[in-house]
Amino acid sequence: MKSYLKIGFLAASIFVLSACGTTGPREHIAPDPKAAELNMQLGLSYLQRGDYEIAMEKLNKALKQNPNLPSAHNTIALLYQRLGEKEKAENHFKEAVSRAPEYSEAQNNYGVFLCQQGKYEDAEQRFLIAVENPLYQSAAMAYENAALCTRQIPDLDRAEAYFRRALQINPNLSKSLMGMADLSYEQGDYMQARAYVQRFSSVSPWTPQALLTAIKTESKLGNQDAVSSYKLIMRARFPDSDEMRIVNEGI
């Protein structure tokens, strides 16, 4: 599994830190639902800033004020996830999606969490639930996450289908472009791999993983000028990377 794929999940987990205010059915009357929503928003803000102690305080307060607020469960789950408290994170993710099954951000976040635990097929189902909501604005990211996760099973056919769906929605998703470049390379379709590498380079800064794929692809195509050019970029920008070591050892 390429390291950029692993990073993609972490980035995706941060990317979807949205403050959804959707609420599910309430079994109890909240003492102050507006205050709960405000504390959830504050908790989210502190979480994004890395101030976990205050974030925890605000989110716990929000849940006391309204235990049925899905966005508070989702956000505190993300906080517990960052703190490495997996059981608490999963419990709150379950609360969020059970109280509001249409809450796509929580479904997506829960999917990322499950995939990081190696529960790939369970994670895939969460991503698919997320994209069922026609109002979900990050469907491309959910499809990309599904691709990244099924890639680890590995189920390359499903991964490719999800990457393609993600790119249909957003043609500039860098991780999906490189995912397709790697899959094309592995399938021996080096011209297609080159095309995806070129699309990636037009929308995203180079990464060592992308440069390695570019070098391997151009080497297979016999374009030594391109190989030399990509190696120069690698040496200039990522001299201490694992990918540079692989290049130095010979591909």
UniProtKB/TrEMBL annotation:
Signal peptide: none
Keywords annotated in UniProt: Repeat, TPR repeat
Residue ranges that the Swiss-Prot or TrEMBL entry lists as coiled coil: none
TM ranges: none
PANTHER family recorded: LIPOPOLYSACCHARIDE ASSEMBLY PROTEIN B, TPR REPEAT-CONTAINING PROTEIN PA4667
NCBIfam families registered for this protein in UniProt: type_IV_pilW (TIGR02521)
Designated name of the protein: Type IV pilus biogenesis protein PilF
